[in-house]
Design a protein that fits this description.
- By secondary structure, the protein is mainly beta.
- It has one domain.
- The protein contains 1 helix and 6 strands; from the N terminus they run ββββββα.
- It has a 4-stranded antiparallel β-sheet, with no helix packed on it. Strands 1-2 form a two-stranded antiparallel ribbon.
Length: 99
């Protein structure tokens, strides 16, 4: 499934933070403050086809030589895991407080 680019503002359902789209040409899918995401995509990034809709908890931080830091999310309802590229303004230090 191809990547569908979506620049959308949203309010984090975990911490209530008002999240603006990134301005550097990439796309945000999680809160930069608490790193939580929402399970809205099913087959590919941006498809918004998932019927789950549950929160996705950040469970680890990984580093990829090509993609940089990744936030690994696990859906709190169905268990699906998805790696997401960290954004420049993500508070990766907050991850220690989440786990």
């Amino acid at each position: 499934m191809p990547f569908i680019a979506r620049q959308e503002a949203f309010t984090c359902e975990h911490c209530g933070h008002s999240v603006d789209p990134l301005q550097n040409g990439s796309y945000r899918n999680h809160c930069p403050r608490c790193l939580f995401s929402k399970h809205v995509d099913k087959d590919g990034p941006g498809d918004r086809a998932s019927m789950c809709g549950a929160l996705m908890r950040p469970i680890s931080i990984d580093q990829d030589s090509k993609r940089g830091f990744l936030v690994i999310h696990r859906c709190e309802h169905c268990g699906k895991q998805i790696p997401n590229r960290a954004a420049p303004d993500d508070d990766l230090a907050s991850f220690e407080q989440i786990i």
